Amino acid sequence: QVQLVESGGGLVQAGGSLRLSCAASGGTFSSKPMAWVRQAPGKEREFVARISRRGDSTYYANSVKGRFTISRDNGKNTVYLQMNSLKPEDTADYLCAADVNNACSGYGCFRPSMYEYWGQGTQVTVSS
Fold first, then answer.
1. Which residues of the chain fall short of a pLDDT of 70?
2. Fewest CB within 10 A of the end CB: N or C in the chain?
3. Which residues contact 84 (CB under 8 A, 6 or more apart)?
4. pLDDT for the residue 30
5. Could you read off the pLDDT of 30-64 as tens digits, one per residue?
């Protein structure tokens, strides 16, 4: 059983930055790849970023590549999402997710439906 709690969301102007945090408990955090997924009102969940168990490999959606950075601190059981150069289209509820099975491959690892454990989300609003 994995419990995930996101924090760090808020209201920022376009071009600004935010750093999201996801604190994990109730499982072996270091053994699980982690991801950030976002969901805008009326839209389906969208993959944002994924990080490997050790943090040595990262993957990003094209829409955020070069602007967002995912990282983790296994000693603190926490994964982060540094968001720079924010755009109004980044406005969404940002959710942390854990890949418990760690059995995906290729683009299948970027499908929101394959993650089994989710946090409650933290709202990010970017004004123009």
1. 30
2. N
3. 17, 67, 68, 69
4. 67
5. 678 999 999 999 999 999 999 999 999 999 999 99
The residue behind tokens 């009326």 is 42
Contacts of 20 (CB under 8 A, 6+ apart): 6, 7, 8, 9, 36, 80, 81, 83, 94, 96, 122, 124
Residue with tokens 């072996």: 28
pLDDT of residue 72: 96
Cα(79)–Cα(62) distance, integer angstroms: 20
- What the block records as the tokens of 76 is 């603190």
Q: Token pair of 18, please?
A: 């935010």
